[in-house]
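Re: weekly structure request thread

Next one in the queue (225 aa):
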Amino acid sequence: MPSTKPQSLQVIDLVHTYNDGSRTVDALKKVNVKFEPGKLYAIVGESGSGKTTLISLLSALDAIQSGDITYGGKSIREIGAQQFRQHYVNVVFQSFNLIKYMTARENVEVGLDFSGHGNDKDRAYELLADVGLTHKEADSLTQHLSGGQQQRVAIARAMAGEVPIIIADEPTGNLDEATETKILQIFKKIADSGKIVIIVTHSQKVASSAHAIVYEMRSGVLKRK
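Done, posted below.
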């Protein structure tokens, strides 16, 4: 289990390659970056720049080939991928990944149960209220909610585990401008609570409007903007 005291997430000389069938691709080229608690980060870059590979490694969905990723100075290899995903990091996907035949509250309860907090109905309502959803919306099937509302449910579910790291993969890609602004405000609020929040996006507009520390990924190289 992570320490209750916020810790930094550090990427050290991270190198990752893969074979696309015809050639070897250098997805990450000695990436070094440190993410501090209580701050909002944006990683921008075009498709194929290495963003997806980086967040797959940061969320322990893929194995590290070379280099390291540490949380509080401890390698995620030592923590273990399953433990890291369960207790340290949650990912908010562009496609929401919600269970459509469940209500918003029930989706959040799944997140609570997975992280070892049990099916706490009252806590689920609280988390949904924190992202601006009413009691009535919380009791609605997710398939009956708007795209912006579904994204809020996905964020609430990510918060359910009370993990120190939230990674959002293109979280506003399917949303209108007004809803996008509200979602970014929610992520800023989460960061202000002491968590590390990393938004990965191809949109320079999202990065500039998020009041974030911005890094750009280009051809496997990550640089501060």
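The chain has a mean pLDDT of 90. The chain has nine helices and ten strands.
Next request, please.
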